[in-house]
Amino acid sequence: MAYRQLSIESIAEYLQGIPEMKKVFSSFNELDIREIGDGNLNYVYLVKNKEKPNESVALKQAVPFLRIVGESWPLPKERMTIEIKALLKASEWCPQNVPEIFFYSHEMSLVVMKDLSSHGVLRGQMIEGMYFPKLADHISTYLAQNLFHTSDLFLDHREKKEMVREFINIDLCKITEDFVFTHPYEQNETNVYNPELKESDIKSIQEDSNLKISVAEMKKKFMTEAQALIHGDLHTGSIMASEEETFVIDPEFAFVGPMGFDLGAIIGNLLMSYFSHEYRQPLLGREPYQYRKWLLETIESLWSEFVNKFEHLWINHQNSSGDLYWDYDSGVEHFKNQREKYILDLLQDSIGFAACKMMRRILGLAKVADIADITDLKERARIENITLQVGKKMVTERKKFRSISEVIDLAQEFSTLK
Ligand code: SR1
Ligand code: MG
Looking at 114, 141, 169, which one is the last position of a domain? Predict the structure, then answer.
């Protein structure tokens, strides 16, 4: 079927023509269809049978332009092909953390998935101060499973290179290269600033040549390091969660890139939530420490559980296959040292990427509601500047960090509420 952009009016008829949908819907006569997409790129519809509300799906369709900007910014709708393949790949390693797919069409650039609306987007729920006791466990599993099994530590050399080819994602990588690693650090027409953010604060980032060199190093890593198949946009808006379950959605930015980009994305977003709650917790009528403490503990356990799970997979694979990617004499004797070095490099990469993901959300086009929705613009500017200064230190000094707890210490040091 040739591509056409679906709408609330045309979805019922479209779904009725798909045999797989007959397993979900007993009737197509009374469907409640709402557009619920709050992302920057695509359209997402929630489709429910009014008579039997447990019969429901989410339909996501890519359009041939960037939604946040409009039709004036073309973007190949074929990005959905990458998203579908990445969802299928992730479901091989941790099906419990990705949405079940009922149907997909590369021609129509769409995917029909399990309705996860009862879970809610993590970012919105964290803005409201909700706790997710299993988040660190679930996301560390998702990351360890996916990153390990799509890296050279696990895959055969040919399979790995074929995967690199399969996931070449030129246009969406270019969005990241521009909007995460370039525009926020220059005077660019796409940047959007809080009017209360001081010019001197903006300049402290955009005119610091040391910082720009550090960001450029992270950009080079992003562009050249084919370490594993990464999600590519793992912020808290790409996660649907309840207290019990966690689902990672929206992997349209997936490609074979540096593992630290995914770890950094989630760490950076949790840090921004932490800074935002310096303002938000008192507003919610709560004492300011408990929730923020939980956020920092989540960062710490996400990292340490990731390391444990990743190393466990690596050691088991080594023991069972006897195959090392650094297959040379006495390689086995140095296995432990190699793992330590690999993990330290990964920590420092993650810190550098987290910093870029934080600073771009303050100076660049795409914001995070945690901070950007703070209505008191002076308070927002104060939180924004904390985010910028912590980001600056993280990226420029990333090679000095030896553990995740040093990142936590830094975040606390810059908070006004200790
Ligand atoms: C210009 S598109 C802005 C952002 O939306 C996506 O979620 C990615 O983070 C992208 O950089
Ligand atoms: Mg997205």
Answer: 114
